[in-house]
Request: fold
Amino acid sequence: MYKLIAYVLLFAFVMLLHALQADEEVALQALFQGKRAVNRAAHAAAQQVDPDKLKEGIVSIDRAAAEASALQYLRRNLRLDEANEPLPGTFWRARADVLVFEIVNEDRTFPYTYVNSAFDYTVTLERPGVVLIVRLAYPPTYSVLGPIAWEIKGTAELVY
Reply:
């Protein structure tokens, strides 16, 4: 009888380890998906050239177009609605919060080192660019892992 109890406990322990491993794997894939979405959104925003300034020979990023483009790419890649809430039936369960959206434009001297001590982020830009930091919360598959939230950072420069 004691062997049966030992086998049941061993089986429960192995299943717990399997659930933990599966949850960690899914969390890592979710982080990669979020990182790709943030990188794509930052890149799309950085490509929004201000045509009025370009006529004057100044290479600059259009602030309104950059923000609209970044949000559009972020929403499409993560399947979010207009309020950055996940669409029904999607993987994500919590709102994606845009914590930082900063445009480093021609008013700075390049190379420019962007420093954000609140999120422990430093990057050097060689030309105008965009810095984007988004918070995503992982929806656990099992209740083995505690809550996980990431501040995903992305930067892109204007390519010309």
